[in-house]
């Protein structure tokens, strides 16, 4: 994914934020009692986005970064983390923790792929036994409890905290996603619309959860390739060009040729 954004001409940074499994693949043994890992619990993951942005700002001149045009992008749990940061970046839980001014943490735009945005909704939808187990262990990993209380679920539901300071968002998901239903994306779009935050949303008909680019570059099998869903990255590129456009002069072709001494 980083290479795809780099191919567009953007600097691409990959954040390896703290997770329960420590970055390893697979799932924990559902039959064994899980121990709470405080290193990956809320609010650590979104604070690590803030730390990453501070690091980029610190090296902005060296790395040739426009600090006013830093966008964040995530998928699934990573999208939830980006959504959380997008609604909390200017709150004390971020800037006071780092003892910095809120504007130091501001993202210019956010891209969310098949995001989880509403834990209250997620709790209420019917689930298969395996999905219910996954939801419970995810809750434990993120909040420290398999059944978090109402207040905690509201706190970690970014859709409930969208405000006038939330950055513009590009949202996409698939209607066939059963793990994180598309309603999460639609709920986020609705919350953005209520606050008049610019957004663009795409719900593709076909495709399961976790498609990434939905192309051969990221697929592990043909079942992860859907041409319609693969259009999201092209749409996102066009959207980013509107949000992060370069300040280019208005020159005619004649003026350009004269400027380049090609006349």
TrEMBL record:
The keyword Cytoplasm does not apply. Residues 38-192 form the BD-FAE-like domain. Keywords: Hydrolase. One of its GO terms (molecular function) is hydrolase activity. InterPro entries: AB_hydrolase_fold, BD-FAE-like_dom, GDXG_lipolytic_enzyme. This is Alpha/beta hydrolase. It comes from Metabacillus endolithicus.
């Amino acid at each position: 994914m980083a290479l795809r954004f780099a191919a567009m001409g953007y600097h691409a940074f990959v954040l390896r934020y703290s997770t329960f499994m420590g970055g390893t693949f697979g799932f924990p043994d559902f039959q064994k009692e899980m121990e709470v890992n405080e290193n990956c619990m809320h609010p650590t993951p979104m604070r690590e986005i803030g730390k990453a942005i501070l690091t980029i700002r610190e090296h902005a001149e060296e790395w040739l970064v426009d600090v006013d045009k830093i966008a964040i992008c995530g998928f699934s749990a990573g999208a939830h983390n980006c959504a959380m940061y997008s609604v909390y970046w200017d709150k004390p839980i971020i800037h006071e923790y780092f003892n910095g001014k809120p504007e130091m943490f501001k993202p210019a735009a956010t891209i969310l792929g098949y995001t989880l945005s509403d834990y209250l909704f997620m709790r209420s939808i019917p689930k298969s036994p395996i999905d219910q187990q996954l939801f419970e262990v995810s809750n434990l990993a993120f909040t420290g409890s398999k059944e978090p209380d109402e207040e905690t679920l509201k706190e970690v539901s970014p859709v409930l905290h969208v405000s006038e300071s939330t950055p513009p968002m590009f949202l996409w998901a698939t209607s066939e996603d059963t793990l994180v239903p598309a309603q999460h994306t639609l709920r986020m779009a609705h919350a953005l619309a209520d606050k008049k935050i610019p957004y663009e949303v795409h719900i593709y008909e076909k495709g399961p959860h976790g498609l990434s680019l939905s192309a051969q570059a990221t697929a592990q099998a043909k079942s992860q390739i859907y041409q319609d869903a693969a259009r999201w990255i092209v749409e996102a590129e066009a959207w980013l060009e509107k949000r992060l456009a370069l300040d280019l002069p208005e020159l005619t072709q004649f003026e350009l040729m004269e400027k380049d001494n090609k006349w």
